[in-house]
Design brief:
Number of helices: 13
Keywords: Metal-binding, NAD, Oxidoreductase
Number of strands: 8
Order of helices and strands: EHEHEHEHEEEEHHHHHHHHH
Largest sheet: 6 strands, parallel
Strand content: 5-15%
Organism: Methylobacterium indicum
Strand order of the largest sheet: 1-8-5-4-2-3
Radius of gyration: 20 Å
Bound molecules: zinc ion
CATH class of the largest domain: Mainly Alpha
CATH superfamily of the largest domain: Dehydroquinate synthase-like - alpha domain
Helix content: 40-55%
Shape: globular
Pfam families: Fe-ADH
Catalytic activity: glycerol + NAD(+) = dihydroxyacetone + NADH + H(+)
Structural class: alpha/beta
EC number: 1.1.1.6
Distance between the termini: 45 Å
């Protein structure tokens, strides 16, 4: 692969209260918008937004997000958007609401604005949308061809969510650099268009994501626990959202996400957030790639300090059997699994052994 490619959103704006300016950012994109909004914000946020859109002379139609980014929900939102002749689709909520808005916009040829209300996911900046079945089982990924036109991140809104979401976002963001490195070493394609080699810019963003987490993650967690917005919190919101989003899309994911996906065959893991499972997946990846012990210690102690799972027991898997883990290994080896960009030889047994070992090492470190 000799062609290198980079992509990202046109605008990223973050700060306390920026949602009040939503109308101002949407107006240049078109005068009719569909707003897919998490029902939690229907009564609290919508009245203020209606006023903001009126002031900006944007005709906005609001729909309540149904809770799952399923084909049915996407079709419903796309139909609403068509009926409203919306030139812009705005998603306000968590990752699934944003993905629904992005895919609905793609289907009706509209522009996209994402307004995340939690910092637990790197969906807001990316051109990818994940589709689930109506019962919440992962189905497939849609490449929307373009990234959002505007990503608006209101830190005062995000700090109101439970700190567990910010911590989970740090788990997801922590995977970005390690997984980027796997992809560089295995010369895998990134997620821009049909896939290119990563740029220096993409890789350096992934590295900055890691360094920001190490510097500010613990301080941000301590502040966010009490609903305080500090510079460290702002830095971590940026790392979780912009740096992690650009890093994964421009470099690719690998074993932390691959093991995350495989672990979902075990029911107890369903009670954990994406970034929590990815955090444990990072430790497994570092064992799989046999990285220096200092790297493992750094990642494990960071995760432990902000309450992310580092052992199988932390993920509700203290009773896991050899047979269960063989199933996880098999799931990880499915041809569609992203673990393939890990630059070492893989088998179901090698993966299962790495998972057991990561858990044991992390337990030893915290003893
Ligand atoms: Zn992720």
């Amino acid at each position: 692969m000799t062609q290198r490619g980079y992509g990202g959103p046109l605008r990223y704006v973050q700060g306390p209260g920026v949602i009040a300016d939503l109308g101002r950012y949407v107006a240049p994109l078109g005068d009719r918008a569909l707003v897919v909004i998490d029902p939690f914000f229907w009564d609290t946020l919508r009245p203020e937004l209606i006023a903001a859109f009126e002031a900006a002379r944007v005709a906005a139609t609001f729909v309540r997000f149904g809770g799952e980014s399923s084909e049915e929900e996407i079709a419903r939102c796309a139909a609403e958007g068509r009926a409203a002749e919306a030139g812009t689709v705005i998603g306000i909520g968590g990752g699934k609401a944003l993905d629904t808005a992005k895919i609905a916009a793609f289907r009706i040829g509209a522009r996209t604005v994402t307004v995340p209300t939690i910092a637990s996911t790197d969906s807001p900046t990316s051109s990818l949308g994940v589709v689930y079945t109506p019962d919440g089982v992962y189905d497939h990924v849609v490449r929307c061809g373009r990234n959002p036109d505007v990503v608006l991140v209101d830190s005062a809104l995000i700090i109101r969510a439970p700190v567990r979401f910010l911590a989970a976002g740090m788990g997801d963001a922590l995977s970005t650099f390690y997984e980027a490195r796997s992809n560089i070493e295995s010369r895998s394609r990134n997620y821009i268009g049909d896939g290119y080699a990563a740029t220096i810019g993409g890789y350096q963003i992934a590295r900055a994501c890691h360094d920001t987490l190490m510097r500010d993650g613990r301080a941000a967690h301590a502040a966010a626990k009490h609903g305080r917005v500090t510079t460290a919190v702002e830095n971590i919101i940026e790392a979780n959202t912009l740096l992690s989003g650009l890093g994964f899309e421009n470099c690719g994911v690998s074993g932390a996400h691959g093991i995350h996906d495989a672990l979902t065959v075990l029911e107890p893991t369903h009670h954990f957030l994406h970034g929590e499972k990815v955090a444990f997946g990072i430790l497994c990846l570092l064992v799989l790639e046999n990285r220096p012990p200092a790297e493992f210690r750094e990642a494990a102690s960071f995760c432990r300090d902000i309450g992310l799972p580092t052992t199988l027991a932390d993920l509700g898997l203290s009773e896991v059997t050899e047979a269960d883990m063989a199933k996880v290994g098999d799931a990880a080896m499915l041809p569609t699994n992203v673990i393939r960009s890990v630059p070492v030889e893989l088998s179901a047994g090698i993966i299962a052994d790495a998972i057991w070992t990561a858990s044991a090492l992390a337990a030893e470190l915290s003893a």
